[in-house]
Amino acid sequence: MFKNLTKTERAWVLYDVGNSAFTMLACSLIPIWFKQLAIGDAPGQISSDNATAYYSLSIAIVTIIVAILGPICGALADHKGRKKIFFTTAVALGVVGCILNGFATGWMSFLVIYVLAKIFYSASLTFYDSMLNDVTTEERMDQVSSYGYAWGYIGSCIPFTLALIAYILSGGLSENLMWFSPSVGKIIGFTITAVWWFIVTVPLIKNYKQINYVENTKGSIRHVFAQIGNTLKKIVTRDKKVMYFLIAFFLYIDGVGTIIDNCINIGTDLGLPTVGQVIFLLATQVVAWIGSLVFANLSKKYDTVTLILICIVGYFAVCLYALTLKTLLHFGILAFGVGCFQGSIQSMSRSYFSKIIPAENSGEYFGIYDIFAKGASFLGSAVIAAVKLMGGTINIAVASLAIFFLLGFIFLKISDRQEKALN
């Protein structure tokens, strides 16, 4: 597939391969390592319930900070020559934070470093997504965006497998398999991920050139806030297509982000073996790779909105299937269903948004886009928490996310009609 890409497109796709390694670690081993540090009766350690609460709170803090900083940094990066600088800085700080996370010896320091690393990681994605307008043409956006997610999923399996082996050899399965201490396994896992993330990012840093940019040289924070305010006003009053798409995106990506963030918690609540869950999550990466490539080819024949709608319907069915979850096999089937549409719904949404926004303001618009993306995951987790606090099962909690996909489907259809009405 890489041979069909230009040098710049290939470099852009490779960053997905790099950052996805951190995403995979965050969805699987990082919560496990945190609880190893946090839970216990020793001084300074906390209960399992408190550990879950503090971890969820840290995710919420990241969400809020990124939502606030995203549009500001994006608008500043839209000025000529700034986007690569902002992107490189975010990546460098994220990589350093990832390495330091492995050396944290207390649960509080672990969480603080993780929050900082996640903030810089998320910021890098805002700049990265906005680069799509610079690295390819509108006709190729769907394919290139899909390739990014596809190769990101399969590429992340390499460092994650090594991190998983380190976890197992540090007693993750049994103390009989302990070749070295859990702290050493944690250091190895984080370091491998960080090094991988940095190495595959180098081609994009070397080859990226900012083609679309804002000529205005005013770059003060006050001016940026005024600019963002004007953009939001424009979206609400004049650009209904973008407005309805963002509402739709907020709704359906809610379910996607919530399922990804809570996958380990779902299996834990069902009493499933941790290693079995992690193995299925690893297999899901392969499924997501294939699914993204399939949708990349479909994008040559079908319009982007149709493909997003198909993905939404697929996720709706997955949520309803969650009502039947009982065994590890059921969990595996659910993971397979998620994998079929996970990369495609995100990649198609990214490329579609790139098509309907001004290219020169892509950083600012993707900052706004990320507010809806990150905010949605926060809302979905709150829904799951509410269902659980009211005595509902994890099955009902996941199934309740179906309403977000249903509403997202409706608003995406409304957004699509806006363009047709104008034509």
Describe what you observe in this structure.
The chain is mostly helical and 423 residues long. The protein has helices at residues 7-27, 29-38, 48-77, 83-103, 107-130, 132-135, 141-172, 182-199, 202-207, 221-237, 240-261, 263-269, 274-298, 304-321, 328-356, 362-389, 394-399, 402-422. Helix 1 (7-27) runs antiparallel to helix 8. The longest helix has 32 residues, at 141-172. It is globular and about 60 Å long. The two termini are 35 Å apart. The mean pLDDT is 86.
Task: Give the arrangement of secondary structure elements.
Elements: H1 7-27, H2 29-38, H3 48-77, H4 83-103, H5 107-130, H6 132-135, H7 141-172, H8 182-199, H9 202-207, H10 221-237, H11 240-261, H12 263-269, H13 274-298, H14 304-321, H15 328-356, H16 362-389, H17 394-399, H18 402-422
Helix pairs in contact: 1-7, 1-8, 2-3, 2-5, 3-4, 3-5, 3-10, 3-16, 4-5, 4-8, 5-16, 7-8, 7-13, 7-15, 11-15, 11-16, 11-18, 12-13, 13-15, 14-15, 14-18
List keywords for this structure.
mainly alpha; Growth Hormone, Chain: A; 18 helices; single chain; globular; 423 residues
Give the mean pLDDT: 86
Query: How many E-type strands?
Result: 0
Instruction: Tell me the β content.
Output: under 5%
Q: Structural class of the secondary structure composition?
A: mainly alpha
Low-confidence stretches: none
CATH architectural category: Up-down Bundle
Q: SSE order in H/E notation?
A: HHHHHHHHHHHHHHHHHH
CATH topology: Growth Hormone, Chain: A
